[in-house]
Amino acid sequence: MAHGDITHIDIPVTDLQRAGEFYSELFGWKIAEMPGYGGYPMWQAPNGISGGGLAPRDEGFSQPRSYVEVDSIDETIAVAREAGATVLMDKQPINETSSWAVIVDPDGNHIGLYETTTP
After folding, report:
1. Coil, strand or helix: which one is 66?
2. Rounded distance, CA 16 to CA 106, Å?
3. Which of 90, 75, 84 is nearest to 108 (CA)?
4. Which pairs count as long-range contacts for 52-56, CB under 8 Å and 24+ apart, including other chains?
5. pLDDT in tens, 37-78
6. What is the dihedral of CA 41, 47, 48, 54, to 10 degrees?
7. Single pTM value for the model
8. Cβ-count burial of 89 within 10 angstroms (0-12 exposed, 13-18 middle, 19+ buried)?
9. 3-state DSSP call for residue 21?
10. Pairing outcome for strands 41-44 and 30-33
């Protein structure tokens, strides 16, 4: 994916099993836990491209969150801050080749950032 592409959408849920059944039936999404991501079922749309995860709802995560592919989380956060955003979660590793962070835009929307690196 290229810088600026939406790469993933997380949906906050209170009951993972019930949500999985709901979205599978409603949209035909394939939902399964991926190796190394226990307790975080991932969904994939019938087009085989769109996807995301079902994650536990909490105070800081109560609405769906889109994740945008960026070339550099650090550089994107710097530009976002200059434009009036705040950082909800600093850059964190997902695994050895990817990281994520969350910013809050000037209107209060939470936007996830996703960076992939090649070893």
Report:
1. strand
2. 31
3. 84
4. 52/8, 52/9, 52/10, 52/11, 53/8, 53/10, 53/11, 54/10, 54/11, 54/13, 54/16, 54/19, 54/20, 54/23, 55/10, 55/11, 55/12, 55/13, 56/12, 56/13, 56/14, 56/16
5. 778 899 999 988 889 999 999 998 999 999 999 999 999 999
6. -10
7. 0.85
8. middle
9. helix
10. antiparallel
